[in-house]
Specification:
- The protein has about 140 residues and is α+β, with helices and mostly antiparallel strands.
- The protein has one domain.
- A hairpin with a 4-residue loop joins strand 7 and strand 8.
- The radius of gyration is 15 Å and the shape is globular.
């Protein structure tokens, strides 16, 4: 148990060090919960969500669907599982989200970035970078 607590503290220190390089945090935990709830309840529109962790250059995928619920799959400060990198993922670890237009090139599956944009801004103000290939939602500002 003590080893697990020490490991958690080490991970927290790594996260805090990584986010200290940013000038501004753009997302609160409450805003994250509203966003994840909206995305999970819009799985017909949102088919793929990728994320980048602040601690490294790893990019993973969030697994959200209609059965994703607060208090079971995610909490006030993060996810347990539900991502391609595995393990616990706190909201403050996420540098940005990417919604790619092309979800599956082989099967020609795409997601409508304009619909996703409208969905996201219906929750509140976000730092969004949109181009023809993807919508990027920034969680931190340099």
């Amino acid at each position: 148990m003590k080893k697990a607590i020490a490991n958690d503290k080490q991970v927290d220190r790594e996260i805090e060090k990584a986010i200290s390089k940013f000038s501004q945090h753009l997302m609160s935990n409450a805003k994250w919960v509203r966003l994840i709830d909206k995305l999970a309840n819009s799985f017909d529109i949102v088919k793929r969500v990728e994320f980048k962790k602040v601690q490294n250059d790893l990019v993973g995928e969030l697994y959200l669907n209609a059965d994703t619920t607060i208090g079971f799959d995610y909490w006030q400060n993060g996810f347990e599982g539900h991502n391609s990198l595995g393990g616990w993922l706190t909201f403050k670890e996420i540098e940005f989200l990417i919604f790619p237009r092309n979800v599956d090139r082989d099967n020609n599956i795409v997601q409508d970035l304009d619909q996703i944009m409208q969905l996201v801004i219906s929750i509140g103000e976000f730092s969004i970078d949109l181009n023809e290939d993807r919508l990027k939602l920034n969680c931190y500002q340099d």
